[in-house]
Amino acid sequence: MSIQTLMYIGGRLIKGAIVLLVIAVFNFFLIRAAPGDPAKVMAGEAGATDELFLQQLREQFGLDQPLYYQLWVYISNLVQFDMGITYRQQMPVFDLIMDRMPATLLLTGAAFLLSLLIGVLAGVVAAQKHKQWADSFITVAALIFYATPLFWLAMMAALFFSVYLNWLPSFGMETVGANLTGFDRFIDIMTHLILPAATLGLFFTAVYARMTRASMIETTRMDFVKTAIAKGMTPNRVTYRHVLRNALLPVVTLAGLQAGQLIGGAVLTETVFAWPGIGRLMFEALFQRDYNLLLGVFFISSAMVVLFNLITDVIYCVVDPRIELSK
Amino acid sequence: MKPLLKVENLSIRLPKGADREFAITNVNYELMPGEILCVVGESGSGKSMTANAIMGLLPKAIQVETGAITFDGYDLVSLEEHRARKIRGNRISMIFQEPMTALNPLMRVADQIGEVFLIHTELSKKQRHERTLSLLKDVGLPDPEKMMSAYPHQLSGGQRQRVMIAMALALEPSILIADEPTTALDVTTQAQILKLIKELQEKHNTAVMFITHDFGVVAEIADRVVVMEKGQMVELGEREAVLNNPQHSYTKKLISAVPPLVAPERPLLAESAPVLTVNQLCKTYSTGGGWFSKPRIVKAADDVSFELHRGETLGLVGESGSGKSTVSRCVVRLLESDSGEILLGDDPIQALDAKALAPFRKRIQMVFQDPFASLNPRKTIGQIIADGPIAQGMPVAQAMQKAAELLALVELPATALDRYPHEFSGGQRQRVGIARALAHDPEILVADEAISALDVSVQAQILDLIEQLKQRLNLAVLFVVHDLRVAAQVCDRVIVMQKGRIVEAGVTKQVFEQPRHDYTKSLIASIPGADWRSGKTTGHAKTLEKAYA
Amino acid sequence: MNVIRALTQNKVAMFGFAVLLLLSLIAIFGPMLYDGSPWKMVQRPFIPPFANDRFLLGTDTLGRDVLAGLIYGARISLLVGLVSTVIALLIGIPLGAYAGYFGGWVDEILMRFTEVFQTVPSFALAVVLVAIFEPSVYSITGAIAIVSWPPVARLVRGEFLALRNQEYVLAAKLNGQSHRNIILKEILPNSLSPIIVLASLMVATAILLESSLSFLGLGDPEIMSWGYMIGAAKTVIRQAWWLSFIPGVAIAVTVLALNLLGEGLNEALNPKLSGKREH
Asked: Taking every annotated instance into account, which residue ranges of this chain make up the domain ABC transporter (chain B) (predicted)?
């Protein structure tokens, strides 16, 4: 990796850190913007009656100090991964979120790979068969999945594959009380994963398919494609050697931008399928009016997006030789 | 001699809704081995159509209606695709107009050239590498070893075109089709590329079909010439015959529109105080600076000084990157200069803020390059012209009245007032642009490449109009131009710029006949067809010169 | 105008337009013509669709009229979608216009600001905002607007960046026009087409967002919405699947119609970018 690439990544890291700082400040003011005593807001309704706990919160976050001091305490706590303690679970917020993180990473990761793979493939096929039935079919399917509410699709999938056909489980991440180990456990988790990952992935499959198709068609009209044809290449070779790589660049950018949406989608999918990830945790926090936990999940998921964007930037840097200069 | 390629009765149909039914009709010509055939025409003449048909590059919606293109016993129009592919890039190859976009941005130069061997030969990887390297040497690229692993964006326009040529000539084809390969290049680069094509063509005895709009290029390299007008082939003949004794009226019109490369004697202007004085103007650009990387600093104007007088046309010439446009934009205060003086009459305007500048705006106005981008598509011609005076405080009715008068001045019908720009041709729009500039009754008119986007026959009309208006309104004209032929014809004095600096300045005739600076000399020597219509050729050319003047 | 002609010739887009027109009529006049309160218990619960002449689509878990719910839901979906989009445009267009027109440090600051909002997972942000400011039709509309403006700002900035050096804009500067005039009269009218297309797609996204929020229980407790209907029927999906199926179809059809119209607009307004000029 060249020095320029490292500097580019360094620059992106700093930008990401700034974004997180702004979100942290934003979080801080959101708590204060909520009506009522901030300690009570942070503790949520559940903790509202426990004076001792409230006092503990006030001390920890310096809630009786001036605002700038509170902000300082909040940020410096955050830097040390201290987001306070949830009353109900009696557990540090950060630990709770990290407990739930693997499940979410598994779900979103699977959905992401699935949708990227199928979406790009469908987009390429549609562009290749431009204005033939395969194109129309893929375009219409993409349009429909693009328009369908994710949570509804999840419910319908659960209804059909789980309730009606009884093929796949639609609840949780593992069979409760089965105590499986090793490979059996892996298979069990995978079968639980199929429905949530597929429904979460479908929307993004539609997104990537549309994008890839449009980008392929656009790239096909570029001058260097003419050059390739004039060399005497077969159409397939032109597509795979010249068009595809160029056409995928905007898809990579889009995939990076969609990371945030994937997290949002996880909140809904995890809620429907009772998948024990941070999305489900967010729903629980909402239900229990545990605002501190809610904002903690929000902050961590933002941090995940920042990280993901960074990864996409690095990938982009590798696939597009122009990036170092045009920064 | 047997022709290498024969185009017979070729007609190509355009899709419905196009401005005419056929892109080309009944085109007939032959390409002889080892000759350079120039296909000349203005934009929309269908000059590239035949070439695209040969290479299988016609868009799907456009079909060959009748006719045949015979090459090596095959009819390329009806040949099966898999056989045609064996010819493309191998026996017939092509280079394009835009070197910036004709190469795949994500592939190394060596891979793009090597692909040709990969498709058409059985060469090993090592052999491909060696052949590619020797090709890069043949086309005169510096440091070929390093070039092999370069990406297109790391190369200049001229270098990319050399890569394209290397790619096209990789398998020593019998025919090279060159579709305006030098149009996007600067004049000195163009001269080098033309020379390269000619050299390689002679070395390998390749037949070249060279598509161009520029008769200078034709004079430089053609053996024979085909002239196209609106899809019709109007003239075909030897170079000397077509250039010096054209038969068809359209060819005559095109050729007479090419300014001779000889600066006419111009009356000296009476001494007067300058209307515009520029002293030690400097402007630097910095690009690409990031959080860690240092910006690249480019001096676009470096210690530039000149004066402009009433009734005078001063040419600012140079290649792209010379800073001529930067200077003109600094002068009209579209760009902020870093330091130096700009005086309108005796008033300094270089450092004035927007408010203080407002009253001076009307004294110096600009005519822009691109007639399709210089008029707001959502406003009527009347609004476009009247906007300026209205912004300066003139009542609307009076401004519209003035717009009508100005239309008459630039020889457009009064009915144009309520119409929108898209209803007009490039030349007509440029007239509107001139009317807009004149709406302020300026003392100085800055023409920024004001004719370079126009077809040659329209160029002459617009130049003529500017000259007339200059005399009638006693304007001072600052003419930014890259075309030295035009500069020779219209400028009283010229300033030659290179990399932000003035390298030579003087009376036009003197600069053209006795250039002092090496750069000026190389610029003038690079003009394609410099010997043609330069006063050094036949008597006929001389009479044409008079007709032009 | 050719744009309207091109649009009317596009059957798919016209279909989308017709569906939207119908939905708007239902949203505006439906509640007046169909006398049924969506909250009132009118019959025994769980009447399946088409089983009862009076309640065509049946009743829900509490015996409320499903059709009435759908009609009122159309109202809130379209209203929230439209209003939040308008607010997002009101934030995004000026921000993008200033950033793109003035460039330099103005651009730098505004775009960093936009970047923060674009990085944040938008649905999670909407959830947080609505939860903290208490669910109401105002907080929902506001939250959706706040998470949807960044693409507008980026698009408008891009357009302005491209157009501000167009020669007709430079000519306007030479004319001595004010920045305000140049922004509003020279550049903005020429960058409207992509904004219109984006806006139509944003309404669709906003409707999806609104339904997702209500599904999670973050809907306005006073107002019946499609998302709420699905959320409320979630626990009884085994007994009465249609209760969640029907409102879902309503959402999908509305969003699809908007997308179709948006694509049609795109083809009509930006013929160069869409698939019309195929080779």
From this structure: 5-255, 276-524
- The residues, any chain, with a CB within 8 Å of residue A240's CB and separated by 6 or more, are none
Bridge partners (DSSP) listed for residue B236: B226
What pLDDT, in 10s, does the model give residues C31-43?
777 776 777 777 7
Q: What is the pTM of this model?
A: 0.85
Contact A18 C259 (CB under 8 A): no
Picking from C168, C173, C176, the nearest residue to B376 by CB comes out as C168
Q: Are strands B339-344 and B276-287 parallel, antiparallel or unpaired?
A: antiparallel
Facing B388 at nearest CB: one of C175, C186, C278:
C175
What ipTM, to 2 d.p.? 0.87
Residue B313's DSSP bridge partners are B477
CB contact under 8 A, B87 and A230: no
Is there a contact between B278 and B334 (Cβ–Cβ < 8 Å)? Answer: no
Closest CB to A229: pick one of B56, B116, B292.
B56
Task: Please answer yes or no on whether A224 and B102 come within 8 Å at the CB atom.
Answer: yes
In CATH terms, the superfamily for domain C2-36+64-269 is MetI-like (1.10.3720.10)
Q: Which one is predicted more confidently, B535 or C129?
A: C129
| Chain A partners (3+ C-beta pairs within 8 A) | B, C
> Which H or E run contains C46?
none
Candidates C254, C169, C278; CA nearest to C206 is C254
Are B162 and B141 spatial neighbours (Cβ–Cβ below 8 Å)? yes
Is B76 strand, coil or helix?
coil
User: A192: domain range?
Assistant: 98-289+297-319
Contact B60 C278 (CB under 8 A): yes
Please check whether residue A212 lies inside any domain of the structure: yes
CATH node for B5-256:
3.40.50.300
The predicted-structure confidence for B474-518, as pLDDT tens digits, reads as follows 999 999 999 898 999 899 999 999 999 999 999 999 999 999 999
Domain CATH number, residue A140: 1.10.3720.10
**Beta partners for residue A2, in sequence order:** none
